[in-house]
Amino acid sequence: MARLSLEDKVGQLMMVGFAGTEVDGSVEELVRGRRVGGVCLFKRNIEDSEQVARLNDGLRRLLADGIPPFLALDQEGGNVVRVRDGVVVLPGNMALGATRSTELAYAAGHAQGEDLKRLGFNMNLAPVLDVNLNPRNPVIGIRSYGDSVPLVSELGRAFVRGQQDAGLVTVAKHFPGHGSTDADSHKSLPVMSESREEVLAQMEPFRVVIQDGLDGLMTAHVAVPSLTGDDLPATVHPEVLGGLLRQRLGFDGLVLTDELEMDAIAQRYGVGRAAVMAVNAGADMVLVPWRAEKKKEVYEALRAAAWSEDIPRARLDDAVRRILTAKVRRGLFEPLPPLEERLATPPSPEHEEVAHRIARAAVTLLRADGKHFPLSQETRLGVITAEDSLGEAIRARVPEAQVMNVPAYPSRARRAVLRQRARRLALASDVVVVGMINSRQLELVTMAAATGRPVLVVSMGLPYLAEQADEARAVLAVYSYQPAATEAAAAALFGEIGTPGRLPVGLNGLAFGDNAR
Q1: How far does CA 149 lie from the centroid of its chain?
Q2: 186 cis-preceded (ω within 30 degrees of 0)
Q3: Where are the beta strands (DSSP E) in 337-401?
Q4: Using CA atoms, how far apart are residues 159 and 144, in angstroms rounded to an integer?
Q5: Are 366 and 467 in contact (CB under 8 A)?
Q6: Dihedral (C-alpha) 28, 32, 34, 36: value to the nearest 10 degrees?
Q7: For the stretch 184-197, what's the b/e string if a residue is b when 16 or more beta carbons lie within 10 angstroms of its beta carbon?
Q8: Mean pLDDT of 1-22
Q9: Rounded to whole angstroms, how far apart are CA atoms 420 and 12?
Q10: Rounded CA gap, 433 and 379, in Å?
Q11: Cα 325 from chain centroid?
C-alpha cells in the first residue's frame, strides 16, 4: 500500500474486459497502462483451453513488475460456460439442487477450481446464490440451486468451500438477490417488491457463506425499496453495501459490482458517475468489460474523484486493502508452475466424473404413464431435440433412431416448417422423444402428440415449462443441456439408471422435493 501512487490505487479498483484472443498493443495499453486490478474474460476471448492459458500467461506478464491481476471469468456450469475443453463442464446449479447433495456441491466447486487454476485463472464469478422465487425470472432460472432458501444456502456453502479450498478467489453473486425479480438488469432496473422480512430472508445464502469466509461478492443492480425507501440500485446504495452488507452482515471481503454498462445503471447515471457512486457506497472494484470509451470514462472519473477526495482517501485505501488481501490470501503473488508444464498436465478424469455423478443424481421423473417409460431399445424411435448431444446419446443406444435437431430459438418462419417436419417424423415412429430447452419446443410436443404417437419429454431447462407439456406420456427433468446431463437423460430413458432427483422448485402440480418415481 505504501508504495502505491494514487493512480496505482485507482487502477486496482478496475476489473476490465477487452475484445480479442491475444495480448496486443491495445490490451497492453489498457492492462499495463492503467495498472488494472483485474481482467475478466468472456466467450469472445476464448477459443480453447490452450489458447486461454497462453492468454492468461500473457496478461500476467504485463504486470510482472507490479501487482498481479485477478484473471476472472463466469464459469457457472449449466447455461453459463466460458471454457468447454480441458476443464470439467458442470451441469449447473439447478441440477445440483435436484441432487440435494452437499458432497457433490463441494466436489463440483473443488474440481472446477483446480481445472481453472491450471489454465491460469485465479478468480471465478460463481456461484449464483440467488433464490429463484419467481418462475418468470428472466435472468436467473436454472442458474439458481432452487427456490428454497435452506437448499440454496447449504449447496452454495459447500460449493464455495470446495472452490476456495482449490485456491480460487470465489465471488458469489448477485447480492442482495435477483431471484424474485421479473426484469433483466441488462435492460431495465429490477425491483425487489417484497417486504423487509422477505428480502432479508433471501439474503440468508449470502450470510451463510460470509460466515464461512467468502472471498468476494458481486452486487446486483436491483432496487430494494422495503430496505432503503427509494429506488436507488443496490450497487450504488450506501445503505445496502455499507450498512447492510458491511455492518449488519459483517462482510470484510471483496465487493465487485456487476457490469456498470448494463442499462439499469448506465442509462440512469452514466458509467463514470456510477463507478464513483459504487465505490463510495462500499464497492471495492467496478466491472467495465465492454466498450473502450467506457473504461476510459470510468478510470478518469475515479481518478478525478480520488484526487478531489470526492472518494475519501480512507475509502480508497480500504478498497485497495481488500483487493490486495484477497490476492495475498489466494496466492496471486506466488509464481505459477511453468505454462508448458501446466498444459502438459491433463485434467483429472475424476473431475469429469463429478459432472456425470451430478447429472445422474439430478434426473427427476415428473410424470410417467406406467407404459411407455422406460424405453425399449427395440422401439422405432424418433427424436426431436434442441440439443444435439441428446440425439447422439440416444443414437449410441439405438443407432436406427431418427433424430431431428431443431434450433433452440427458431424464427417465426422456420417454426411452421419445423412443425411439419415434427409431424412427419412422429408418423414414422412408434415413440417420440422431445428434448426441450424452452417454450419454442412445446409446440413440437403438441404436433408430435397430435399424430397419436406417445411422446416422452426430456426437459433440459426450467422445470416450470415441462409441466406445460400436457400431451407427454412421461416427463424427465435434467435441468441442463450440457453433455453430462443429456447422457444421464438417455441412460434414464432406457432404464439404465434410476430417476433419483427431487424437484428443487415447486410447480403447480408437484411440490418442492417431489418426483413421480
Answers
A1: 18
A2: no
A3: 364-368, 381-385
A4: 13
A5: yes
A6: 110
A7: bbeeebbbbebeee
A8: 96
A9: 57
A10: 11
A11: 25
The answer to whether the CB of 62 falls within 8 A of the CB of 28 is: yes
Per DSSP, the three-state class of 397 is: coil
Give me the phi and psi of 500, to 5 degrees please. Answer: -80, -10
Dump the DSSP string for 406-454: --SS--HHHHHHHHHHHHHHHHT-SEEEEEESSGGGHHHHHHHHTTT--
Beta strands at 285-288 and 455-459: parallel, antiparallel or unpaired: unpaired
Q: Are residues 355 and 90 in contact, defined by beta-carbon separation less than 8 angstroms?
A: yes
pLDDT one-digit tens code per residue, 116-138: 999 999 999 999 999 999 998 87
Peptide bond into 91 cis (omega under 30): no
Q: Residues near 344 by Cβ (< 8 Å), separated by ≥ 6?
A: none
pLDDT in tens, 276-326: 999 999 999 999 998 899 999 999 999 999 999 999 999 999 999 999 999
Model pTM? 0.96
Which one from 74, 115, 215, 258 is the annotated catalytic residue? 258
What are 359's three cell numbers? Answer: 447429472
Cα separation, 337 vs 341, whole angstroms: 7
221 has catalytic annotation: no
Residue with cell 422405432: 380
**CB under 8 Å to 236, separation ≥6 — which residues?**
265, 269, 274, 277, 278, 281
Dump pLDDT digits (tens) for 427-467: 999 999 999 999 889 999 999 999 999 999 999 999 998 88
Q: Choosing from 186, 263, 310, 514, which is the catalytic residue? A: 186
186 catalytic? Reply is: yes
> Are the CB atoms for 108 and 480 separated by under 8 Å?
no
DSSP lists the bridge partners of residue 475 as: 367, 457
Encode 299-340 in three state secondary structure.
Answer: HHHHHHHHHHCCCCHHHHHHHHHHHHHHHHHCCCCCCCCCHH
Under 8 Å between Cβ of 124 and 112: yes
